[in-house]
TrEMBL record:
Similarity annotation: Belongs to the prokaryotic/mitochondrial release factor family.
Pfam families in UniProt: PCRF, RF-1
Designated name of the protein: Peptide chain release factor 2
Keywords assigned: Cytoplasm, Methylation, Protein biosynthesis
GO CC term, one of those recorded: cytoplasm
Localization of this protein: Cytoplasm
GO function term, MF aspect, one: translation release factor activity, codon specific
Keyword Cytoplasm annotated: yes
Modification note: Methylated by PrmC. Methylation increases the termination efficiency of RF2.
Source organism (scientific name): Aquamicrobium aerolatum DSM 21857
Prokaryotic-type class I peptide chain release factors domain: residues covered: 207-223
Its biological purpose: Peptide chain release factor 2 directs the termination of translation in response to the peptide chain termination codons UGA and UAA.
């Protein structure tokens, strides 16, 4: 086996890639064995319950099989995450749309939703940059989600999200529609080269905002990098050191440029699907209605949930699985039905 080769670690990048592939295969084999065993055990319980006339045993076993089916479907989607960067960690940006406090509050709700989703999956979340709203919520934020297949799972979340609710900031209790956008792009590891020089960018420093203590708010430690040719802007204020923030911002910029290249490749490979992968402010992907009724609907796949509170608490797997399946299979076109 190559993993047992004593010379393997002479090339650390190749060794790390091989060990990740080995771990992925081992995890897959273990999962198949566990699911197979659980199915066999529950089928035996059903037979036992029917023989003894105990319907409670049969009902419990059938419920377990239904849960097992849902888990199997999720694992099937995960096995299709074979893109070049699917296994990587990922950056997630959230930006408030026009509308002031209402949209800024909605952006903070989205940020919490993705943080809760990541925590449910056992992923680690680091807050890299936050610009607070004037009264409430956030104008923008960037987090780093660390975990196996983090980018693969989250890549279909890029787009515009719409919220309809009775505004808590409206003294007349009127219904408001707010927009916020999400941008997801993979962390570029050492095996992926992205050439960009300082002459290609503009670098600005500024004082960090939000929590962090007196030092953070009184020194120009935050760093913003603008890629001149594309207009891509990244920023980091997570560290007290300007040097560390600059290094992290460079990593984020390389990741954004790499994500742009992935989009171009996908558009060339499948021109008919290009419009679905073009991420812009006018490309709404999901509506969240809290008033006058309760509904979350994905406009690409038609997947719905009548429990927005659960979705906003991170219950996103069903939406992500459907979007990934549609993307992998070529999709059947974006749903045009809207929610008002």
């Amino acid at each position: 086996m190559r993993a047992e080769d004593g010379d393997l670690w002479n090339d650390p990048h190749e060794a790390q890639k091989l060990m990740r592939e080995r771990q992925s295969l081992e995890d897959g084999i273990t999962t198949v064995k566990q699911i197979t065993q659980a199915l066999s055990d529950n089928l035996e319980l059903i037979e036992l319950g029917e023989e003894e006339g105990d319907q409670s045993i049969v009902a419990d076993a059938e419920a377990s099989i239904r849960a097992l089916r849902a888990e199997t479907q999720a694992r099937q989607v995960e096995t299709l995450l074979s893109g070049e960067a699917d296994s990587n960690d990922t950056y997630v940006e959230v930006h408030a749309g026009a509308g002031g406090t209402e949209s800024q509050d909605w952006a903070s709700m989205l940020l919490r939703m993705y943080t809760r989703w990541a925590e449910r999956r056992g992923f680690k979340v680091e807050v890299l940059e936050v610009h607070d709203g004037e009264e409430a919520g956030i104008k923008s934020a960037t987090i780093l989600v660390k975990g196996h297949n983090a980018y693969g799972w989250m890549k279909t979340e890029s787009g515009v999200h719409r919220l309809v609710r009775i505004s808590p900031y409206d003294s007349n209790a009127r219904r408001h529609t707010s927009f916020a956008s999400t941008w997801v792009y993979p962390v570029v590891d050492d095996s992926i080269e992205v050439d960009v020089s300082e002459s290609d960018v503009r670098i600005d420093t500024y004082r960090a905002s939000g929590a962090g203590g007196q030092h953070v708010n009184t020194t120009d430690s935050a760093v913003r990098i603008t890629h001149i040719a594309t207009g891509i802007v990244v920023a980091c204020q997570a560290e007290r050191s300007q040097h560390k923030n600059r290094a992290k911002a460079w990593e984020m910029l390389r990741s954004r440029l790499y994500e742009e290249e992935l989009k171009k490749r996908e558009a060339v490979a499948n021109a008919s699907e290009a419009s679905k992968t073009d991420i812009g402010w006018g490309h709404q992907i999901r509506s969240y209605v809290l008033q006058p009724y309760q509904m979350v609907k994905d406009l690409r796949t038609g997947v719905e949930s009548s429990s927005p509170s659960d979705v906003l608490d991170g219950d996103l797997d069903e939406f992500m699985e459907a979007a990934l399946s549609a993307r992998i299979e070529g999709g059947s076109g974006q749903a045009v039905e809207d929610i008002d």
